[in-house]
Amino acid sequence: MAVLIDGKKISTQIKDECKEKAAALKVAGTEVTLAVIQVGNDPASSVYVRNKKKACEYIGIRSLAYELPEETTETELLDLIKELNGRSDVHGILVQLPVPKHIDADKVILTIAPEKDVDGFHPMNVGALCTGEKGFVSCTPAGIIQLLKRSGVEIDGKECVVIGRSNIVGKPMSLLLLRENATVTIAHSHTAHLKEVAKRADILIAAVGKPKMINHEYIKQGAVVIDVGIHRNAENKLCGDVDFDDVEPICSAITPVPGGVGPMTIAMLMHNCLESVSLQK
Ligand code: NAD
Fold it and tell me: Which atom in ligand 1 lies closest to the alpha carbon of residue 170?
């Protein structure tokens, strides 16, 4: 039976470490502050924003909530970001994506000061990740590295296959694995012979966005399988990109959905908020 990689437990460890750091910063005179902006009231976004605020409360990070109406113009949003960029009492700025269609998400990302971009989406931070400079790393892939390391999974020298090449998950994931000295393959919707490519993996990261697409035909015996996907099935239950029941008997370790990668994303966001204080110094 495969080892279950427990994202709930590991994310709690990280949040508790963050709690200690936040308390020490407070004693030293800095109340770490995150500004969270939501435009419109997409239900999924509201859940994410609520969970982020809850995590801030748990850790002792002050959160400033900006809940803007759907009809907010791009200029109004960019002006708010610029104002927050200039405030020395605000350390991190997060705009919950997706933004409504009339707002250009790329412009939003570019407007957030790189040293306050706790999501790690600004091209300066992505560039820093590429060249190994200091900067914020996108929270989900950063969380996956922590999951692997804290579960004792060796990355150095391993064959890693990342399925998915999005800017938020697949690409930064590949760069982080490369930084850990893995041999990395990025597979995507145009990859030929995907099953054969996936079967090379000692560590397979599924970030495809397709419910239960990855079954045993994609898995090498004994591989470690990380499932990034989050979907609701017909019975309104959560499932991932991996067909857990089909894959679990042949892999050595696997993340469940829920309780795997999901909780790590918020834990790493909190970690990034604390990092922002030193990056701004
Ligand atoms: P995305 O849709 O932006 O990217 C999906 C990628 O998968 C694309 O690069 C595409 O080329 C590739 N792909 C699509 N179909 C494919 C196929 N048939 N074969 C091979 N490759 C294929 O998605 P994303 O933002 O990277 O997210 C991926 C999944 O992770 C989604 O289910 C999303 O909900 C989930 N997600 C979870 C968290 C978390 O905190 N757990 C965070 C972000 C995203």
Answer: 26
